[in-house]
């Protein structure tokens, strides 16, 4: 869905965004009837609070939204979006002292809060619309919101309508919209072109496995995004229990996130040579499914012992990363809903990432703060390398013991990234409960932080 600002409207309703410490001063400047109305309502400018104030003729004089205290805003993002959800139908014009990144973030939060997934059931459109605040780049904010909406739509769509075929179609539509080159290797051709791990993981499905390859831009540094596109993960022969399988439509969240980020990059015209690689598979159960104990040979030539067929994401990413590294990009980033260990470590709000590049880390951390898109660095801890070396093969796809699962997965992936500047994000891709600007369901993580950081990282 399109998330856009309302057209400029001379009759737009003033919406005052008020911090707790500024509330009394604002109230003192109001007319006696307005002051009485606000006082009787009990409005206290707490974060996300909203109130409409009537004029003497019964029309709406203005609306007020609480922006809380600095301490409250540290514990919650997108305070304006929380208030917007409580406002009645109308077009509003923001009146506040916000400026710069803070104003942009709150304006973006309003748009993100308008998102509705309505593919399968009619949903009521958000009532409150916002005119783009003065001082913000409305086109940029709308482009970011569009990329986030794409990510959410892809994750929210169930696997019966978002299998490898549909994911390819969505990527093709994205490429066509921006004039990007598009190429796909499918089925048995994966073996012919040396992508054995992608083929092996996806061969049990009725929908053939495939590698999606999109290129855009002819100048600037080379940026390669690799997204895990496991459209549904049964766990394979190491079948997941029902409770663990319930959200596996989101196991292509890495692919959805890199596609959303690619939408932002292309729409905003960043001067990069962008490449997007998505191994799109379904990890299904059939007579030809790969087995625990199998030893597979990767595109790079490294052998992998399969100790758990439910650790399939790192396998398909391995071949894609090897392929991406052959093009010697200046920066290669993988995003994947890879491990439950990452969720246990940092919960659903933070995007854990791995990088050994101090410049990348500094730029990303600053970008995350600017974009209100939090990330958390975890280490490529080399003493754990021995945990992914089983002896019978070069690598183990699922080390026993359960320790440091997200770190050992990241170390596994790094083996296939060659000499490139490589970063890995172990995203969750799902909001378990609705929050301002982030309804329950699929969500992009770290894409906005990366978008802010890329100009610094790549010296654009």
UniProtKB/TrEMBL annotation:
Does the keyword Manganese feature in the UniProt annotation? yes
- Quote the PROSITE patterns the UniProt record gives: CYTOSOL_AP
Keyword set for this entry?
Answer: Aminopeptidase, Hydrolase, Manganese, Protease
| UniProt GO MF annotations | manganese ion binding; metalloaminopeptidase activity
**Protein name, entry field:** Leucyl aminopeptidase
| GO CC terms, sorted | cytoplasm
What family does the database annotate? Answer: Belongs to the peptidase M17 family.
Pfam families registered for this protein in UniProt = Peptidase_M17 (PF00883), Peptidase_M17_N_1 (PF21337)
Q: Which terms does the UniProt entry file under GO BP?
A: proteolysis
Q: Which residues form the Cytosol aminopeptidase domain?
A: 308-315
State the species of origin. Answer: Lentibacter algarum
């Amino acid at each position: 869905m399109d998330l856009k600002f309302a057209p400029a409207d001379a009759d737009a309703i003033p919406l005052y965004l008020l911090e707790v410490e500024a509330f009394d001063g604002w109230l003192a400047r109001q007319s006696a009837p307005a002051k009485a109305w606000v006082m009787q309502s009990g409005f206290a400018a707490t974060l996300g609070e909203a109130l409409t104030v009537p004029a003497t003729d019964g029309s709406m004089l203005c609306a007020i939204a609480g922006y809380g205290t600095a301490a409250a805003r540290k514990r919650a993002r997108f305070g304006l979006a929380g208030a917007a959800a409580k406002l009645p139908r109308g077009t509003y014009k923001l009146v506040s002292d916000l400026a710069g990144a803070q104003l942009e973030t709150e304006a973006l939060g309003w748009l993100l809060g308008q998102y509705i997934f309505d593919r399968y059931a009619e949903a009521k459109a958000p009532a409150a619309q916002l005119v783009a605040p003065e001082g913000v780049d409305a086109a940029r904010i709308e482009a970011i919101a569009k990329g986030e909406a794409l990510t959410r739509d892809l994750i929210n769509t169930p696997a019966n309508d978002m299998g490898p075929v549909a994911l390819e179609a969505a990527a093709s539509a994205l490429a066509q919209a921006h004039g990007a080159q598009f190429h796909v290797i499918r089925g048995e051709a994966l073996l012919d072109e040396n992508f054995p791990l992608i083929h092996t993981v996806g061969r049990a499905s009725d929908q053939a496995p495939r590698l999606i390859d999109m290129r855009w831009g002819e100048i600037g540094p080379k940026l390669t995004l690799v997204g895990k596109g496991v459209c549904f993960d049964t766990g394979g022969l190491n079948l997941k229990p029902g409770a663990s399988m319930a959200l596996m439509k989101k196991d292509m969240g890495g692919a959805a996130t890199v596609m959303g980020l690619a939408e932002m990059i292309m729409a905003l015209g960043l001067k990069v040579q962008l490449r997007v690689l998505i191994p799109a598979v379904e990890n299904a159960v059939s007579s030809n499914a790969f087995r625990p104990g199998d030893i597979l040979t990767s595109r790079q030539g490294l052998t992998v012992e399969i100790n758990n067929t439910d650790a399939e994401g790192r396998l398909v990413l391995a071949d894609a990363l090897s392929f991406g590294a052959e093009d010697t990009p200046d920066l290669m980033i993988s995003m994947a809903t890879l491990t439950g260990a990452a969720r246990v470590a940092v919960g659903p709000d933070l995007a854990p990432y791995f990088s050994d590049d101090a410049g990348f880390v500094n730029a990303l951390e600053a970008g995350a703060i600017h974009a209100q898109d939090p990330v958390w660095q975890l280490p490529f801890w080399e003493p754990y390398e021995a945990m992914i070396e089983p002896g019978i093969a070069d690598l183990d796809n699922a080390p026993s013991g359960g320790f440091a699962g997200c770190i050992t997965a990241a170390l596994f992936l790094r083996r296939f990234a060659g000499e490139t500047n490589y970063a890995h994000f172990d995203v969750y891709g799902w909001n378990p409960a609705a929050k301002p600007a982030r309804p329950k369901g699929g969500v992009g993580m770290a894409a906005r932080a990366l978008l802010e950081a890329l100009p610094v990282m790549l010296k654009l």
